[in-house]
Structures are given as C-alpha cells and as structure tokens.
Amino acid sequence: MKKPEIHILVCNSYRVSGDAQGVCNKKGAVNLVPYIIEGCADRGLDAVVTTTACLSVCEKGPVMVVHPLNFWYGKVNGEDEVDEILDALKDGELCEKYSIAD
Asked: Does 3.90.226.10 match the CATH number of domain 6-98?
C-alpha cells in the first residue's frame, strides 16, 4: 500500500457505546465526507478521508484534522469552508480562518 501524503479526519462524534451523538454529527459532518473526498481529487491532493470518534472539542464542531500537518479546523459547517481549507492545503498552507489550534 502506498501511504497517502495527507490524512483528513472528520469528527463524527462516535462514543464508546457506538452512538454518534455529539455536535459534529448533529451538524452533518459525515455528510461532508464525500464532498471532501471529491474536493481532494479535484485539487490533485493525495489524501485519505475518514470519520472519527469524538475529538473532544465539541464547542468548535464540526471539526476536521489534517495529518501529518497537524492542522485542526473548526466550524467546518459546509462546502464553502471545505473549499477554503482544501485550497489552502493545495498550496501547502494553513487556512487560518478556520484554525482552532496554535
């Protein structure tokens, strides 16, 4: 398997019991996954996109994390936010507008 350059994690609020019940899930984060995958392909980004358990920053949700760059984004509510973040990633930059980590 060839390791992707980028791994994008999208919080889907899974809990230990398996129920997705947090802010990110309720705000439709999982519905953005196909759009993120398509956006990465359109920009030529070598990326894998997965959903995760709760990332414990619910007040910032929906949350998206980009590794290995360690970019944490919050309030990723829709396609416009995703487009801005992916455009910055294509340029190898942080999209400061949605960054939630120092």
From this structure: no
What are the helix (H) ranges across the chain?
Answer: 23-26, 29-43, 79-90
Phi, psi at residue 72, to the nearest 5°? -110, 125
pLDDT (tens digit per residue) in 10-69: 999 876 665 656 789 889 998 999 999 999 999 999 999 999 988 989 899 999 999 999
pTM of the shown model: 0.91
C-alpha to C-alpha distance for 35 and 6, rounded to whole angstroms = 16
Write the CA distances from 2 to 43, 46, 48, integer angstroms. Answer: 19, 10, 11
CA distance 20 to 39: 25
